[in-house]
Amino acid sequence: MARSKSLSVEQGLLRAWYSDSRWLLLLRPISWLFTALAKARRRRLQNRFQGKAFAVPVAVIGNISMGGSGKTPMIIALVKALAARGLRAGIVSRGYGGHSQQYPLEVRTETEVSLCGDEPRLLALELAHLNCPIVVAPHRVSAVQYLLASYEVDIVLSDDGLQHYAMHRDLEIALVDGARGLGNGLSLPAGPLREPAERLREMDFVLINGATEIPGLTADGLIRLKPTVLRHLASNRAVAATDWQESRVVHAVAAIGNPERFAASLESLGLEVLLHSKNDHQPLSPGDLEYGDHLPVIITAKDAVKLSEPVPDNLWVLDVEMILGSQFVDEFVAKAGLTAAGKPADLSAK
């Protein structure tokens, strides 16, 4: 078991939602109001914007609950799988955590995290070899329009944005964390749900990350994260995750939506993990990586892009790979209406 040495405020609230703490009962009336307002907002925006299709299909990859579900590695894996089938994808994102004076902002490998956010920067680094364009903007419609005006792509993937109903979408993929499910099943603020659970029945695909099944939830497929490499950040020396020869006791620092999943990945390698949870997207300072000992400190690839030189000599990064089934990718391509030549088919009958 991972031993949590420190817990952020955000992670403490997530833990309450996913363990259904009794004090959350006091917030249920507010949750009912939130659900009603969310439904009304969705109807209003869908009536106004859904149906105003773009030149190519747009697929949204997100979740209906707070906390990480694996969206970023999912998008990386999907872009690679599409490229293997001769299809070029572009990506749009909110760019959470970044602050630019000008949007839309095209994200390149050299773009500062402070401008674009950590996830778009990681996507740019991971997908540079595929020439995958990435554009961020708070208003995703403008990001899609900019991308399509600047690049020829077969499909646009939206990193999150299921609730961004001002953007037309042709496909919706919802990811559900296999370990935590939908928590207590309640909407914010009494629970982790941004929308009611029945919203999942309207998705094109519901994928469970890291579990065979969740009671009461019908899924279209399973995905999983596989630890691949541990990288010594100062030297970029890589060690296969299964060949780790350093200390079996390690510090794990994670500013992601679900640090416990990160700890579980390390535990699957036989490590004893001292977990230090941070708020999602939180910048890391040198003090966040020092614990008064010489034990290895392991962070996520998403957190690594936020650090600048020099870095501590005991700092390592765990690289992971999302495993997608070929059947899912084939079904996704077909449902997107893409032909073998990579051109969008007529989606008017969808």
For the termini, the CA-CA separation is 46 Å
From the alpha-carbon coordinates, what is the Rg to the nearest angstrom?
20 Å
Give the strand content. 15-25%
- State mean pLDDT (0 to 100 scale): 91
Query: What is the CATH-assigned architecture of the largest domain?
Result: 3-Layer(aba) Sandwich
CATH superfamily of the largest domain: P-loop containing nucleotide triphosphate hydrolases
Q: Kindly state the number of beta strands.
A: 14
Assembly status: single chain
Please give the domain count: 2
Number of helices: 9
Q: Which stretches of 5+ consecutive residues score pLDDT under 50? A: 345-350
Q: What's the helical proportion of residues?
A: 25-40%
Given helix and strand content, the structural type is: alpha/beta
Q: Give the CATH class of the largest domain.
A: Alpha Beta
CATH topology of the largest domain: Rossmann fold
Overall form: globular
- SSE pattern, N- to C-terminal: EHHEHEEHHEHEEEEEEHEEHEH
Question: Could you give a short account of the major beta sheet?
Answer: 14 strands, mixed
Describe this structure in words.
The protein is α/β, with parallel strands linked by helices and 350 residues long. The protein has helices at residues 9-19, 28-49, 71-84, 113-116, 118-127, 140-150, 259-267, 301-304, 326-335; strands spanning 3-6, 58-62, 89-93, 105-106, 134-136, 155-159, 171-177, 205-209, 221-232, 237-240, 249-254, 272-277, 297-300, 315-323. Strands 1, 2, 3, 4, 5, 6, 7, 8, 9, 10, 11, 12, 13 and 14 form a 14-stranded mixed sheet that branches. A hairpin with a 4-residue loop joins strand 9 (221-232) and strand 10 (237-240). The longest helix is centred in the N-terminal third of the chain and has 22 residues, at 28-49. Residues 345-350 have low confidence and may be disordered.
